[in-house]
Amino acid sequence: MKFTFDSRKVEPGMGFVALKGEKVDGRDFIDAAKAAGAVRIINGLGELHAAALEKRRSLKAKVIGVTGSSGKTTTKEFLRVFLNCPATEGNFNNHIGLPMTILNCPDDAEFLVVEMGTNHPGEIATLCDIAEPDIGVLVSLGSAHMEHFGSKEAIANEKTTLLKRAKDLSFRWDEVESAPFECPLPGVHNKTNMSLAYAVARALGVSQQECEERLNNFSLPGERWREVEKWGVKFIDDSYNANPESMKAAIDAFAEMKCSGHKTLVLGDMFELGENALEKHREVFEYAMKFHFKLVIGVGEMSSRCLCNLVYKNVATLKKKFRLDVSAGDLVLLKASHSMHLSDLIKD
User: Do residue 85 and residue 157 come from a single domain?
Assistant: First the structure.
């Protein structure tokens, strides 16, 4: 049985999850869902978690949990293709998205990959209570969400909860060997993410040949290293999320790329970095300036206070002038926290 939050998407035989949100109360649409053919109603977060745990315990699938400060979604997508299995859609990785992923897992799936996100202490433990992971995968440790954790040690304690709770196996990014084939994405960090997923797949019985063949189906969701061409300029839109470590890794990968023109970095604000946020932004911009790209542009309250070539307080102002800063053949990287809406720069 498939479940949805949206009563408009209910079809006969489906289930409907009614949750109270900030703007809409899903319980107001229960009658509409029933009229559309919903045969099961899950009312409230508690029922959702209980239903997901019940479904998880009925699955024959090995459940693989993936967490880390950055690279979770990329690693999850590599696992999806290597294991040829269902996985978390997009960034649906919290206390609502994870149970929905489990509820919608096919009964005959051999594996299920669930991404686990956190921005407050204790959230990984809650997700483990629901998913009861057989295998834990730790992608990275960094300073994302420092505002809520207070220290890197606290972040490490939170993330490694998954490894401690995994029933069978655990894997860390710094304990696996490099995969014996090329990565479809540039950058050492992406090769590491792929190698981590490859190590898991091999441990679960997938051959090297199968992994290589399945890479043809690899792609990233949303605004993650998405190539877009506009005005004859190639844009790398990597603006879904950002923290200091992922910023530097993206800059490294961008530096490796070839183009017939010039390279420009557009870096926007990173959020939830705590009291040292400005210092961390300046550290990233100092790192970026060492590469001597044609332009390094800072966008946002914090980024506009950093040393770079051009600064703008918001994307709207940049969008009015940016066409004059690039030419056909140029390569541009867009990187910022998602709520900066940096991808608006390449929207009509």
Answer: yes
Domain that holds residue 6: 1-43
- Coil, strand, or helix at residue 28? helix
Residues 200 and 232 in one domain: no
pLDDT (tens digit, 9 = 90+) per residue, 131-178?
Answer: 999 999 999 887 666 676 778 888 899 999 999 999 999 999 999 999
Q: Which helix (H) or strand (E) holds 16?
A: strand 15-18
Whole-prediction pTM:
0.85
**CA dihedral sign of residues 342, 141, 72, 250:** positive
Strand order in the sheet with 15-18: 3-4, 15-18, 40-43
Domains in the chain: how many in total?
3
- Whether 80 and 165 map to the same domain: the answer is yes
CATH number for the domain that contains residue 313: 3.90.190.20
CA separation for the pair 56, 53 (Å, rounded): 5
CA separation, residue 49 to residues 42, 70, 100, 106, 277 (Å): 10, 26, 9, 18, 35
Tell me whether residue 238 is exposed, middle or buried, using C-beta atoms within 10 angstroms of its C-beta: 0 to 12, 13 to 18, 19 or more.
buried
Strand partners, 334: 237, 266
How far, in Å, CA of 184 to CA of 204, rounded? 22
Residues 67 and 154 in one domain: yes
